[in-house]
Amino acid sequence: MPPAHHYLSWRIWTVYALLFGIAIPWYWPAEDVRMLLGFPLWVVVSMAGSALISCYTAWLFAFRWPVDD
Amino acid sequence: MIAAAGALPFGTGGLIFIGLYLLSLIWVGWLGRRARQENTLKDHFLGGSGVGFFVLLLTLFATQYSGNTILGFSGKAYRVGFSWLTSVHFMTAIVVTYLLFAPKLFSLAKKHHFITPTDYLAHRFNHRGLNLLATLIMIAALSNFFLAQLTAMGRVAEGLTTLDPQTAFTWGVIILAAIMLVYETLGGFRAVAWTDVIQGGILAVGFAVLLVLIFKEYGSMEDTTRKLLQIAPEKVLPPDSLALKNWISYIFLLGVGAALYPQAIQRIYAAKSAATLRKSLALMAFMPLGTALIAVLAGVTAAAHLAGELQGAGSDAVLGVMLRHIQEQSLFGHAVVVIIFAAVLGAIMSTADSSLLSISSMVTKDLYAGFINPGASQQALTRLGKGLSTVFMITLAALAVWLNSSGTQLTLVQLLEMKFDMLLQLAPAFIIGIHWKGMRSGPVFAGMFIGLVFALSFFWVPDKGESWMTAIKTSGFHSGLYAMLLNAVIAVAGSVIFAAKKSRRDLP
User: Fold this and answer.
1) Element of type H or E holding A45
2) Which of the pair, B450 or B10, is modelled with greater confidence?
3) How buried is B414 (Cβ within 10 angstroms: 0-12 exposed, 13-18 middle, 19+ buried)?
4) Which pairing describes strands A39-40 and A35-36: parallel, antiparallel, or unpaired?
5) Is A7 within 8 Å of B100 when comparing Cβ atoms?
6) Number of CB atoms found within 10 A of residue A11's CB
7) In this structure, are residues B249 and B476 in contact, taking their beta carbons and an 8 Å threshold?
8) Which of A40, A54, A69 sits opposite B274 (nearest CB)?
9) Rounded distance between C-alpha atoms, residue A53 and residue B118, angstroms
10) Are B221 and B87 in contact (CB under 8 A)?
11) At what angle do helices B331-361 and B165-218 cross, to 10 degrees?
12) Using the beta-carbon criterion (under 8 Å), do B285 and A58 form an inter-chain contact?
């Protein structure tokens, strides 16, 4: 705990599009009842995606804060 | 809410704990008063030179997570099942949205001494109509939010005592509102932020205790999921097409709308340094996993194990029913229920007090000093700000009590339910305007006004019919998002056309 427009870079928002694409359960079959760790499988994958979004966001704030200052 | 599940009468020990907790808030208010450095708006509304990492993190947390997070989210998960995990996504999306404007807004706020969100708009666009419109949008949205928190306070009071519900509601609102008013008037932003440390701390403990209780009282998640799959499979299976559209819509609606809450923007201003702000926001990114996720698990557990008991009860009473079960088990159960109750109370009060302070700051600085008496002294404005807090508190507390006793559903209240659709209309000015110097004030004002009218017009659009507006309303995406898109197109296209005309005029 290294420009001001850095957080607008297409790379960052491409990563976010991928992570939200994993986290939002749009690609699961309607009758999918597979389980993992006591939860429906789609819930585990969705929450894992959410945890990745949190980690990536925290990393951006902690280590990639735009210093123009 | 909690009370709808039947009263949870606390013993003397429980009531003493809650009483001491409330008294500690007034003590913190007095400490905030002693720490005052000067009698100015900046000191009263932003805590002077700013707050450090620990206080900023907990005030962001306690303000962002309201009573709705713990009560409403568990109730919604009881109704729709695992699909309400969308709440984890949109609470995370709020922090993601800060990437788009918080660093630059913080830098500008420190340089130009902003106090209210409208100060940024005045600095960037210098357009009085835009200042007035944006301020009115924020005050309307926050007044609704504040009224909802006061009502939630009354519901908690109903659950605390064995008094008849209406008496408990009325006295609960009056006593809790008075306590908030005392510490806020005494210590301003410092008191609000420092009490948020207590409230945020208890809220975090409350969620942790709730997680332990879910597994201790109702067994493993596997049992819960299998049971729910038998009695209500739609609450376990992946969301259908319409639910998915709603899921994505919520991420944009709440992710952008809640990031533009005035009290949240003022916390960006109040950070002592950029390092303080970035560390606090970095940790805020993880909060949904320890709060919204636990509330959803509580709701899903109740849907599996308490389905029969809640028929006919309001589903936001889920947590109350669970707590009553736990309370009856043992002395330990009784003690942890008191802690969760204090957490709910803390979540509600910490959100309400920051909303009230923010409303008061905008009326004082943006409306009174901005339009009525620009020459007023700092002392006079600070005094006015405290007076306005009292007036707002009494007015809205009286409205909450009247709405409860008369059973009236005010059309105005329903209208203001669209607060996020309204707040979204600020997005182009804040998020695009802060980065693009070519954005012009006229098109931004036109976009915001047309977007607001378009968003609010959906209130009168029927849910069934052939019209294109009905098609939009039932598309699965919130109407405020369509309005924001229209708003942004007008603001951007208008600015581009304006620049093209200007460059043609400037040609020799």
Assistant:
1) helix A41-63
2) B450
3) exposed
4) antiparallel
5) yes
6) 8
7) yes
8) A69
9) 31
10) no
11) 120
12) yes
Residue B397 token pair: 């507390």
Tokens of B290: 């320890």
Task: Tell me the two tokens of residue B70.
Answer: 């713990």
Chain B residues with CB under 8 Å of A20 CB are 89, 251
Distance (Å) from the alpha carbon of B279 to chain A's nearest alpha carbon: 6
- Tell me whether residues A25 and B239 touch, CB distance under 8 A: yes
DSSP state string for B83-141 = GGGHHHHHHHHHHHHHHHHHHHHHHHHHHHT--SHHHHHHHHH--HHHHHHHHHHHHHH
pLDDT in tens, B386-431: 888 888 788 889 988 877 776 654 444 444 457 788 888 999 999 8
Is there a contact between B376 and B363 (Cβ–Cβ < 8 Å)?
no
Closest Cα partner for A53 from B461, B483, B284, B50?
B284
**CA distance, residue B363 to nearest chain A CA (Å):** 32
Per-residue pLDDT tens over the stretch B208-223: 887 887 777 778 887 8
Count Cβ–Cβ pairs < 8 Å, chain A vs chain B: 108
- The answer to whether the CB of B52 falls within 8 A of the CB of B58 is no
In this predicted structure, what is the pLDDT of residue B427? Answer: 93
